Automatic annotation (TrEMBL):
This is Putative gluconeogenesis factor. One of its GO terms (cellular component) is cytoplasm. It is found in: Cytoplasm. Transmembrane segments: none annotated. Pfam families: CofD (PF01933). Its main location: cytoplasm. GO terms for molecular function: LPPG:FO 2-phospho-L-lactate transferase activity.
Amino acid sequence: MSDIIGKKTKKNEGKVVVIGGGTGQSVLLGGLRSYPLDLTAIITVADDGGSSGTLRDYLRMVPPGDIRNVMATLSNASNDFLHLFQYRFNSEAGFLANHTIGNIMIAALAQEHQDINAAIQSLSVMMDVQGHVYPVVNEPLTLCATFTDKTTIKGEAEITHAHKKIHKIWVEDGNGAEPKSAPEVINAILGADVIVLGPGSLYTSILPNISIPNVAAALRITPAKIVYISNIMTQKGETDDFSDSDHVRVLNQQVGANIIDTVIMNSGLVPEDYIDWQRWNEISHQVKSDPDEVRKQGAVPIMGDLIELRDEGVFHDSKKISELLYAIIKDPGMK
């Protein structure tokens, strides 16, 4: 089935695995899909908020929201279909309130197939998805965090809303045991030419994936170049005062080795008077750039103005970040 899903890619110039979650992963994949690359998305399953959280709790399935967004981004389906797939019922729709059609479709197929991977592959064929999409594990995970004040919280939404400085995070399955990724995920990591971490929330979008022991082990031994796309803004309470090298340090510590080879860092300046701080209250301020400290951790810093200003907020520019990443893929020695 995976061979069928990848058939649209011609004369692939590299196998690229993007690990993460949230909007950042979809933004990056949306830019990369225009290049001749064999794309694989590995997606976090620790989300427990909104429609995804409700379906996760009622059906004991992986949260479908990030999976849905990635599939929509990589799909060659018509705009009319994608509009319907992404349609979200309004808050007055009773038991359907705030659910998306796509989330419900993924839930239905997961129940029919009794297997989330089979559901995703089936839907990928229907939607003509250009690439491979895998949840990092086939069951919902609980994100756990211990904070510097020695308190502990379980649940991604609760951790995010706590706005407290995190000391340590880990993930547990439904039995409180150590989770394990499926062979497809591990094989993708071991067979990649380039692995991309980010962009996305450090503690809730990226670390939940690489906290899984066999994923961390695969990252330690993969021959692939590992690229981290550093965040533009810090996250309130979690990464306040973090520099680019601080993000890299946390990633390396979580895996247990200096795995990051290249760090894509933003050199553009965020205008302080542009951001609506009430609307985007989860961010704090711009990440500090410290390329020399990044080099000390064995990684090559590559800088560029990657900012897109919209909706009174700051985001990675999909076109700019994908162009820079493609240049790195084409020229492994790029510095």
